[in-house]
Amino acid sequence: MLVSLKEICIEAGKKGWAVPQININNLEWTKAVLEKCEELHSPVILGVSEGAAKYMGGFSVVANLAKSLHDSLKINVPVVIHLDHGTYEGSKKALEAGFTSIMFDGSSYPIDQNIAYTKEIVALCHQKNVSVEAEVGAIGGEEDGVTGNGEVADPKECAILAGLGIDILAAGIGNIHGRYPANWKGLNFETLAKIKAITHNIPLVLHGGSGIPEDQIKKAIGLGVAKINVNTECQLAFAQETRKYILEGKDLDGKGFDPRKLLAPGVAGIKKVVEEKVLMFGSNNRY
After folding, report:
1. 167 is catalytic
2. Terminus of the chain with fewer CB atoms < 10 Å: N or C?
3. CATH classification of 6-281, choosing from 3.20.20.70, 3.90.850.10, 2.60.40.1180, 2.60.120.290?
4. Which position among 71, 84, 154, 251 bears the catalytic label?
């Protein structure tokens, strides 16, 4: 069933598990994630960045693809179609296209501007029963070969955003998009605990879930994280398995060049990562 993320994340937060957000990039990706989560009886959030949406043909294509696969595959677990790190304009476009959840990322703006835009997006989305994720304290990552350790959000700013009617909050606690460097300092659990205490019942999001050690993942869940995003590990698995298939010359064997055969190992790699994360997050056998 297609849902907003509000209800499942509230339930996850209360019961001590986290809903996986798996970012998708094409038809194979979407199908693999839906099939594996249905098999494991896990709810899932299909995350789509604006870049991925553009690559796939636009927000309407993404929404219709996800909805059509959901129906044709007879998916029974809760499925969220979620814009990841949406801009102000992109958030409104994804809402109109039929996404069931919107993340407006105003973390790059001064806090007053972030508040103003977030309030507007909340009002627009809630008119259509679409959930809203907001962010404060930008998530780190790699750019031009320079890797940052990730910003740590101000708990007071988190409290302000939590009071705007949002459904879930993403707060930087040292987490990073992409690969984690060897000298990464780890998650800032002291800040996470403060954020949870000051935002009360708002479920929290952990971005950059690829590569965070399992013990830190579980500690974060215990401190209120109810949604964890995964992207890089699926991409790496897909690339690794596809490369292996080609290097072994299987694409030259008979009709091994057929895209359905060529991409199959990569799809299997995605499913393996999804299963690992679902079991780690404790979202299996919930529906």
Report:
1. no
2. N
3. 3.20.20.70
4. 84
